[in-house]
Amino acid sequence: MKQFKVQSFVLVLIGFTLGFSEFLIVGILDDLSQQFDVPVATVGYLVTIFAMVYAISTPIITLMIGKTNLFWSLLVLMAIFTVGNAMSVMAPNFALLAVSRVVTALVSGVAISIALSFVSHIAPMAKRGWLLSWVFSGFSIASVLGVPLGTWISTNFGWRMAFLTIIGISIVTMGLIFGSLPRDFKQRGSSIGGQLALLKDSRIRIGMFLPMFNLAAIYVFYTFLRPIITTQLHFSTTMLTVLLFIFGIANIIGNQASGRLTNGPGLHAMPGVYVGQFILMMLLPFTFNLQWVGAAVLMLLIISMPLLNSPIQIHFLQVAEQGYPQSIVLASSLNSIFSNFGIALGSATGGVIVSHLGMNAVGPGGAAYTLITLLMVCWLNRVNKRTATSLGSKG
Q: What average pLDDT does this structure show over 351-377?
C-alpha cells in the first residue's frame, strides 16, 4: 500500500512538472513581450506552437515506442524535456525560445501518455478513476503553484529563473521515477498497423474530438487570461497572482469532480456541463465592467475545463482493454493529443479574435466551440448506448 502511494505521488509529480512547463507561458506573457519587443498576441502563439508540436509528435513517437520498455522510455523522455527547458533558459532571442519550446513539446505528450499508462498498470480497477483524476490534477496544481510561482519568479528575478526552477523540479522527478516505478512495464507487442486498429472503432473516433473542442473553447480566452485580469477586469499585479492561485484551486476542484464523475454518470453528465459553459461564455464580455462578477465567471469556466478528463480517459482505456490491448499507450495518449490540438486551435482563434475584434469577443468565440463539444458528446453517448445494447443482445 505504501509503495502504491509513493508511485501515485510520482505520477502526479510528472503531471505537475509537465504542466508547469506547458502553462508557464500564460503567466509570463507580458514579460516575454517586453524582453523580446514583440506583441503580446505574438507571444501567445508560443502556446499554439507548443500545442501543435505536442499533438502532432505524440502519436508518432508513441507508435515508435511499440513494445519498448516504458520505464526507460519515460526516463529518456524526461531527460530530453529537461534539455528543452535548459534551452529556454539560454535563449538569446524569441526565435530560439520558440525552438526550445518545440523540443520540450516533442516529448511532453508521450511522457504524460506513458505516465497515464502506468496508472492502469499499478492501480486496481477501483482506484483508477481516483488516480487518473490526481494525475490530471498535477496539471491543475501546476496552475495553482507553478504558474503563480513562475509569474512571481519572473517578475522579481526574471523569466529565465522560472525555467531554471522547472529544470530543478524535473531532475528531482527523474530521480523519483528511477527509484519507485516498476521497470518491467511493456505494452503487448504489435506492429504500428496493429496499434492503429484502435482508431477504426467509432467510439474512439468520436471521442477523440471531445477533448479537442472542449479545450479549444476554453483557450480562446484562457491564453489571454493575464491581460483579461489586468486590463479588462482592472485588477492590480498583486491581485493577478492571487487570482491565478484561486483559478488554479478551481481547476483542481474541477479535476477532482471529474474523478468522481467516473464512478457516477460519467460522460452522461457532460451535456449539462456544456450547456452551462455556453451560457457563461456568452455572458463573459458583459462582466468585464463588473470586476468580481467577471472573476467569478472565469472561475466557473475554469472549473468546467477539466470535468471531461477522467470520464473520457476511462472511456478510451476501457475500449482499448476490451478490444485493442496492443494499443494501451496510444489510447492513453488520445486525450492529451487532442487536448493540445484544442489548445492550438483555441489559442490561435483567440489570437485572431483579439487582433481583429478585441478582448470582448473571446467569450462568444469560445462559445462556438462549446456548442460543437455539446453536439459531439451527445453523439458519443448515443453510440455508446447503441454498442452496449448490441453487445448485451449478443451476450
A: 92
Domain that holds residue 179: 2-394
Domain with residue 269: its CATH number is 1.20.1250.20
What is the rounded average pLDDT for all residues in the chain? Answer: 87
Provide the pLDDT for residue 203: 93
Name the phi and psi angles at 307, rounded to 5: -60, -25
Contacting residues for 26 by C-beta, under 8 A, at least 6 apart? 47, 147, 222, 223, 225, 226
Does this model's pTM top 0.85? My answer is no
Q: Do residues 47 and 223 touch, judged by C-beta distance below 8 A?
A: yes
Is the Cβ–Cβ distance between 262 and 314 less than 8 Å? yes
Residue 4's CB is within 10 A of a number of other CB atoms, namely 13
Please say whether the beta carbons of 175 and 75 come within 8 A: no
Residue 201 DSSP label: S
173 is written with which cell numbers?
522527478
First to last CA, the chain: 37
Cα-based distances in Å from 257 to 90, 119, 201, 309: 40, 18, 28, 10
DSSP states of 309-333: HHHHHHHHHHHHHHH-GGGHHHHHH
C-alpha cell at 259: 474523478
Distance, in Å, from the CA atom of 164 to the CA atom of 373, rounded to the nearest integer, reads 37
Q: How big, in percent rounded to 5, are the helix, strand and coil portions of the chain?
A: 90, 0, 10
Three-class SS of residue 270? helix
Q: How many domains does the chain have?
A: 1
